[in-house]
Every structure is written in C-alpha cells, then in structure tokens.
Amino acid sequence: MSRNSQLHEIKEVDEKVILVGVQLDDDYDRVDASLDELEELAKTAGAVTVGRVIQKREKINPSTYLGKGKVEELSFAVKELGANGIICDDELTMVQMKNLSNIIDVKIMDRTMLILDIFAAGAISSEGKIQVELAQLKYRYSRLSGIGKSLSRLGGGIGTRGPGEKKLETDKRHINERITELKRNLKEIETHRDLLRKNRERKNIPVAALVGYTNAGKSSLLNRLADADVLAYDKLFATLDVTTREVILPQGSKIFLTDTVG
After folding, report:
1. How many CB atoms neighbour CB 53 within 10 A?
2. Angle of helix 144-151 versus helix 94-103 axis, rounded to 10
3. Three-state SS for 60?
C-alpha cells in the first residue's frame, strides 16, 4: 500500500460533527480560534463540521462538561443539523463521556481521541504504530465505562481506528496484556535505533532537527534541503513518523537532518 493511500484511508466514514467548547474567561476569540483548529483536525479525520456550541462558564461541569440547559440545546442542535457526532475541545473524563452519551444519542469524542485517531490512520513505521496504539489503549483503559456506549453509536470513523480495527475487548486484563506486549516490541525497536544513532556518532556527522508545530512546513523544508520525498500535505499532523535524511551543506560537509512530529 502506498503512503498516499495509507493517509487517505482516514476518510472511510462520512461523519457530521458539532464542535463544543467552554469559555472560562472573557477571551471568546481564543476559544473560537481553538475550535477553528479543532475543525481542521476533524477535517483531517474525514469529518464535516456542521455546527459549533460555545458556553461561557466559571468552570467546566464535572458531570456533563456543559451546563444542563446547554446540553439540552446541544441535543436539539444534533437533531436539527443531522449530526452523528460531537467533539469537545477539552479532554473528557469517563463520567462526562458516559453522561453525555446517555443524554445525546450520538458518538461523543474529545480532542485527544480525535488526534489519536489521526495518528492511528497515518502512522507508517512500526514504531509509530506501536506508540499510537499504546496511547490509544491507555486512553481507553481509563474510560472503559464511558467510551464503549459512545463508540457503539457508529460502526466506524473517528475513534475506531488503530486498536479498534483489531476489535479488542474492552476488558482491562486484555488491554494490560496488550500494553505489556507493545512495550516489549517498542523496547526492541528502541534498541535498534540506538545502534543506528551510535553508528552516526562514530562517523562524527552532526545531527540537527526541524522543530515546530504541526503543518508549519517542516517536511516540505526537509524535502527541499535533502532532495527527499518525505510525505508532505497541507493538513494537521500529516507527518506522524520521525524521518532522518542526509543533507550536503554548501561547503561540502554533511549533516543528518531529522523531521519531527509537530
């Protein structure tokens, strides 16, 4: 499978989502900008944003994220807009996810689940896939009681890629066993990577890294400097694996340049 087809698999299910945020101060523009980014993330994951809900509160509701009246308004908006998912801008607790799912009959997600899903769909290397699955399992482990019903609302799409493709049981023992196995595999990969790094050090070639937020142009810059063909797309978190290429400097010396995950 080519890299391009791997990345485009992320758009298997057409989801219509409503974005939800809580404004805890007077800076509405900051919350609105955060939802702009959340919309771009949802687009990367193959979802279409059909609405937004922002509530100004002194603190986040520990039971339902939003206040009771706003949750009712959100439930009405879901029906009116034909949405089949809700994405909250903050990370939800098990209690919040479970209660929202009981009140609103659609899939409930948060920013963390969305980003992990993008990672799961786009990771190419063995190490990247293992790290993403570990993160997903740890996330789901702490939310087993709340996440199961929410994800059952839709047979595919955001939140079901990665470990979901293997249909893992939502059982803590099973997940712990899988986490142990993944950590062992990751350790083996890290040992191999250390050998490669020591080999570079013996050659006495400097190593530099391109660092910046997602979609800042790091992969495009690496391609230009190293005449490489690293995957580069104008979307958030298109690069999900660390890549190192040799670069010849104008005076003829060499460096190893690493493209990092934003």
Report:
1. 19
2. 30
3. coil
Tell me the three-class secondary structure of 111-153, residue by residue: HHHHHHHHHHHHCCCHHHHHHHHHHHHHHHHCCHHHHHHHHCC
Q: Which amino acid is at 222?
A: L
- Asked if residue 48 has pLDDT above 90, the reply is yes
Q: Note whether 105 and 71 are within 8 A (CB).
A: no
Name which of 220, 205, 213, 211 is nearest 255 in CA terms.
205
Q: Which DSSP symbol is given to 92?
A: P
Of 71, 74, 73, the residue nearest 63 (C-alpha): 71
How many other β-carbons are positioned within 10 Å of the β-carbon of residue 71? 21
Token digits for 236?
């958030």
* pTM for the whole structure: 0.68
Q: Report the percentage of the chain scoring pLDDT > 90.
A: 35
Please state, in angstroms and rounded to a whole number, the distance separating the CA atoms of residues 32 and 20. 10
Question: b/e per residue, 138-167, with b = 16+ CB within 10 A?
Answer: ebbeebeebbeebbebbeebbbbbbbbeee
Taken in order 132, 134, 138, 140, the sign of the CA dihedral is positive
Question: Contact, 19 vs 89, CB < 8 A?
Answer: yes
Quick one: which of 141, 142, 125 has its CA closest to 186? 125
Pairing of strands 243-248, 254-259: antiparallel
